Amino acid sequence: MPFTQRHLLGIEPLHPSEITALLDRAEHYVALNRSATKHADALQGLTQINMFFEASTRTQASFELAGKRLGADVMSMAMAQSSLKKGETLIDTALTLNAMHPDLLVVRHPSSGAVNLLAEKVNCAVLNAGDGRHEHPTQALLDALTIRRAKGRLHRLTVAICGDIAHSRVARSNLILLGKMENRVRLIGPPTLMPSGVADFGCEVHDDMRAGLEGADVVMMLRLQKERMDGAFIPSEREFFHRYGLDAEKLACAKPDAIVMHPGPMNRGVEIDGLIADDINRSVIQEQVEMGVAVRMAAMDLLAQNLRAARAV
């Protein structure tokens, strides 16, 4: 099955074969990014606009780099200085940009569903770079590519996602993707950091870190999303690390060849011990960053192909 999507708004609409197709395409770009030239022409003649309403380092940088390496004209808007500060609505901003005839619009927004709303108002391909607590599809896809390369497959693995599940769009997108690819997913964290209705997610739920990590192939740590918290969800960071922070003693409960992941930015000594984060034998955190560029190149390549085909009709 080919990749048929017009936008990349979430993992939910993707068929497993579309996920595989995108990851296969990303493998091509991993090789390109490791070559001397690092440039291709898949987006030649197209315009990419990045709109980040929330702070970002990895995602914004990798989308910029991905677009430039594929030959696009890339513009990153300073949303803090945009007309939104003068009272312009998000929809009016989208319509203004749409009048400039962009081809790819990359959006990160603090409100869940905002990116879907924008996609309804523009004539270009829209990529969700994270919206509120909803989804972060390219993060889940780069995580999937990292796992597949480390483990040789992306099915029938036991994956433990640990920490602040309730506020994490990364956890949601990964949960959907890993479920589609027939993996066993465990969510680990204190009850205060579990979303309501978690029992209906089709995964195991643990509030004991050691029990949840037992026999895991992949250990995915999450950051405490303090900017999304409106109350006291944990007694203290010190207590959180004692119970849920990943250290060598807790990691020993997972399989001996289990890999350690983190979407970044990391809070060392809060959700992960620095020695574990830097362990070249277990940690694939830097590989995740590398895979992020390749996955975003693949996503924009495939969406651009569909965009061109639609315009040619």
Characteristics of this structure?
single chain; 313 residues; alpha/beta; five-stranded parallel β-sheet; four-stranded parallel β-sheet; 11 helices; 14% strand
Please tell me about this protein's structure.
39% of the residues lie in helices and 14% in strands. The chain has 313 residues and is an alpha/beta fold. A 5-stranded parallel sheet has the order 7-6-5-8-9. Helix 2 (58-69) links the parallel strand 1 and strand 2. The radius of gyration is 19 Å and the shape is globular. 44% of the residues are buried. The mean pLDDT is 92.
The number of distinct β-strands equals 9
Largest sheet: 5 strands, parallel
DSSP strand content: 5-15%
Mean pLDDT: 92
Instruction: Please mark out the parts with pLDDT under 50 across 5 or more consecutive residues, or reply none.
Output: none
Structural class: alpha/beta
In short:
By secondary structure, the protein is an alpha/beta fold. It is built from eleven helices and nine strands.
Task: Summarize the topology.
Blueprint: H1 16-33, E1 47-52, H2 58-69, E2 73-77, H3 90-98, E3 104-109, H4 114-119, E4 125-131, H5 137-151, E5 158-162, H6 169-180, E6 184-188, E7 204-206, H7 209-213, E8 218-221, H8 237-244, H9 248-251, E9 259-261, H10 274-277, H11 285-312
Parallel strand pairs: 1-2, 1-3, 3-4, 5-6, 5-8, 6-7, 8-9
